[in-house]
């Protein structure tokens, strides 16, 4: 046993010494000063703060425990995406008195604990709506004394608990881009120091918080190219049949009246059918008692009426139009008076006559010869105040107004529009209680006339050399006038209610238009421009909110 105890003795001493040495090491290490955290040469750092001057970029080798960072007089101008993501505990960030001009969309991503952000006295002139994305804990934000002229809508939406905002010292342009800010200021619980407009002149030095929303006219419209039909055409007529939307186009170059169908799924016009017509100038669809007819007016070879047979799903010729009476048709107008269906044909030949046809039982029959030997160019039916009228324009004399006589069951000449000695096209519209005529001229200015109770008076002249087509139309409360020309682009005018005149609105690149046609197609509002020399273009009317 003694030998056994003698052998165990040295082992116990080694164990005791080892334990004592370990304890001494702990004591020595406990007395050493803490290790200095990393700090870039341009910064002064403590364990949880950093103050940096003249830095060439956002310092990367900072202590991860930093909760406060100040950058001043930095030698860079752009704060890039994720610039501070290596400092996830940051609560205070001061970026004042630098030359920053650009802040990336996600510059502050990852700073979910940041409460105070100051970006003052810089050269920032624009921000993205995503600049402050991810700052869910931010309570104080200052963008004072920059060059901000506008702010993107909803830029402050990610800042759920923002309590203080300072935008002073910026040259805000109080146009439609700032309208949302006026609305936001009226409803936010954030305390915002007073800010003032630098422009436009009517709002200069006005407090943004006090701007009346009614002063912002921010809804505008535009016509954008929607579909290109790769063929010329000289007329376009939309129509509804069996709950579907169609378009009839006269295509003399293709020797056809082409029928297109609106595809509500693809939201495009698609080929549907063709009617042979070697010299078509107008294809006029009429739906009478649920039956579809298409009047095909041709310069040569006679004019015809076709009927759609739903059983054979084909167009078949129904009847001819008297070639002795209608020799050189130029326009067709269809209308209904006291339950009876009529169509009128404007004849532009020396020997023909503009004529009226009436539907009776199983066909259209000649009803009245209106205007002989006057080279008529266009027709416009006007049904106002219970007095149906037909206006006939001519290249050889002033437009003639006919009024329907219910006693005689025919049109009676009422007078002439003497202000215009000749007119290629005549159209009408109503604005408020007033009735207007639009008359296009190939040589000379086109005219806008207003009915004064006993006569028309001129209210506007529009330059229109080479014009053969014009069309007033109304889209969702916006009134326009399309005026075409063979020598220049098409002009779109918009009606100014205050001035009671059309003002130039937009130019469309349409070559030699022969008609304009407004066609609502579901939620798409379309303007068709058949061209004699080029492609037929389809434009869509869009509403643009400039405050968005």
From TrEMBL:
Gene Ontology biological-process annotations: regulation of exocytosis
Predominant cellular place of this UniProt entry's protein: secreted
Location in the cell: Secreted
GO cellular component, one term: juxtaparanode region of axon
Signal peptide limits: 1-30
EAR repeat coordinates: 222-264, 268-310, 314-361, 363-406, 410-453, 455-497, 501-543
Short name of one Pfam family: EPTP
Keyword DNA-binding attached: no
The entry's keywords: Glycoprotein, Leucine-rich repeat, Repeat, Secreted, Signal
Keyword Zinc belongs to the record: no
Domain LRRCT: 170-219
Alphabetical list of PANTHER family matching this protein: LEUCINE-RICH REPEAT LGI FAMILY MEMBER 3 (PTHR24367:SF10), LEUCINE-RICH REPEAT-CONTAINING PROTEIN (PTHR24367)
Name recorded for this polypeptide: Leucine-rich repeat LGI family member 3
Organism: Mus caroli
Lineage summary: Eukaryota, Metazoa, Chordata, Craniata, Vertebrata
Gene: Lgi3
